[in-house]
Amino acid sequence: MKNKGFSMVELIVVIAIMAILVGALSPLLMQYIHKARLSADVDTGAEISRAIMACVVNDSVKDSAKEHNSPVPVNSMDGQEFKDAVFAMLGQEDSITGRSTKDADGNKIADDKRQFYYTLDAEKNKVEVYYGGETADYQVYPVVGSKLVQ
């Protein structure tokens, strides 16, 4: 009678090869996941800026929009009617958070900074959006800052 199947040695060799492949490929996978999260946050920032500009030109809510020269958290947006209109355009109810936990350099973004910020100059039709910080390095719209692009 012949035994069918694999021997214990063959199974151990296959498992060892799989373990080596997982060990070699997991850092690459994590890097791709990190890049995808940063890219998603940059896209979300562009959507936020488009929603803000669309609401600025909307006569029914533009008067409740408050201009800011320095970055302010989007979740703490002034003017309730304006905030409600912006969030409705984004399909959100009360808060918008990012997905990235690290910047492009691999530095951890503090939990209290994992949000979007904006500046608004309605007279010049200018909106800037930031994620993870309030400096130009963390800008996502109209130009992507150095901390968010690799």
Which secondary structure elements does this structure contain, and how are they paired or packed?
Layout: H1 8-56, E1 68-73, H2 80-90, E2 116-121, E3 126-131, E4 139-141
Antiparallel strand pairs: 1-2, 2-3, 3-4
Helix pairs in contact: 1-2
Care to describe what's here?
- The protein has 150 residues and is an alpha+beta fold.
- Helices cover 40% and strands 14% of the residues.
- It has a four-stranded antiparallel beta sheet with strand order 1-2-3-4, covered by helices on one side.
- The mean pLDDT is 91.
- It is elongated.
- The chain has two helices and four strands; from the N terminus they run H-E-H-E-E-E.
- The protein has one domain.
List keywords for this structure.
150 residues; alpha+beta; four-stranded antiparallel sheet; 2 helices; 4 strands; elongated
Strands ordered across the widest β-sheet: 1-2-3-4
Q: Determine the structural class based on helices, strands and strand pairing.
A: alpha+beta
Write down how many β-strands occur, each being a DSSP E stretch of 2 or more residues. Answer: 4
Global outline: elongated
Unreliably modeled segments: none
Number of spatially distinct domains: 1
Number of contiguous helices? 2
